[in-house]
Design a protein that fits this description.
The longest helix is centred in the last third of the chain and has 40 residues, at 215-254. The protein has 3 domains: 1-73; 77-132; 141-255, no CATH class. By secondary structure, the chain is mainly α. 83% of the residues lie in helices and 0% in strands. It has helices at residues 3-34, 38-41, 44-47, 49-73, 79-101, 106-127, 134-138, 145-169, 180-184, 188-213, 215-254.
């Protein structure tokens, strides 16, 4: 068995096994706790077993993902992919903090925590992956036009999908966050004024924010798809001479 497969198996065995055991405990614990004596069942430590075991299962699964990605990608990602992704993650962290603490746009506050959480999780994963050595990057050709075009097309498609979905999800409808009973007490003039004010806020704040916000996932897709296509072309070019050399050696051996 190859050493790399040994590393995969070791990681899966210990981290994956721990996650599965913790998950089983979290699922069985509530039923088992109900069968205990009432004095024991009401203790805080006993009541916390399902939550704690579920937390351990999630944590071990996350660490497992990090370990598997480390084994698979360490030393294989070129700097021209690693650095832009690292910069995007940093932008996501800073952007999430800004969205959480700005007092102007509520929809930005609503998405700020999600952006910050996702960026932080990605940063932890990405920081454990070591990129390829700089000397190896110098041997790679420039990024092909085809890889760039495919990356742009994929990014535009993802941008359109995210933007249209989020615009639809944030569409403002009556009673515009006002309690229904209070809304029904307004006359038509008041309702029209509120609707006009809300639509102006939607056009001047929410839509511009979503236009900028959707650039973040689109940029990830661009660099990811461009890197995959670029790596596939690089391996294809390098595989042709190696295959020809092997065929030549085999032919000379037969002769």
């Amino acid at each position: 068995m190859k050493p790399k497969r040994n590393r995969y198996w070791t990681v899966l065995k210990w981290l994956g096994g721990t996650a599965i055991i913790a998950l089983i405990i979290s699922l069985l614990a509530p039923t088992l706790i109900q069968s205990l004596d009432e004095n024991i069942r009401d203790q805080v430590l006993i009541q916390s077993i399902p939550f704690f075991s579920a937390f351990v299962a999630i944590l071990m699964t996350y660490i497992l993902i990090i370990a598997l990605l480390m084994i698979r990608f360490t030393g294989k990602i070129p700097h021209r992919i690693y650095r832009p992704v690292d910069m995007l993650i940093t932008i996501g962290i800073i952007g999430g903090i800004v969205c959480l603490f700005q007092p102007f746009i509520f929809v930005a506050f609503r998405y700020g925590f999600q952006l910050l959480l996702l960026s932080t999780l990605l940063f932890i994963v990405w920081s454990h992956i070591v990129p390829r050595k700089a000397k190896q990057d110098t041997l790679m050709p420039a990024v092909s036009r085809m890889a760039t075009m495919v990356g742009v097309i994929a990014a535009v498609a993802v941008y359109a999908l995210f933007f249209l979905t989020m615009v639809e999800a944030n569409k403002l409808v009556e009673p515009y966050g006002i309690r229904q009973r209070l809304w029904n007490s307004y006359d038509d003039t008041q309702k029209a004024q509120i609707a006009e004010q809300v639509q102006a806020e939607y056009s001047t704040q929410i839509v511009p924010f979503l236009v900028v916000f959707c650039l973040w996932p689109a940029a990830f897709v661009f660099f990811g798809v461009r890197g995959v296509i670029d790596g596939w072309q690089f391996r294809k070019v390098n595989a042709a001479p190696e295959r020809a050399l092997n065929e030549g050696v085999a032919f000379s051996g037969v002769g």
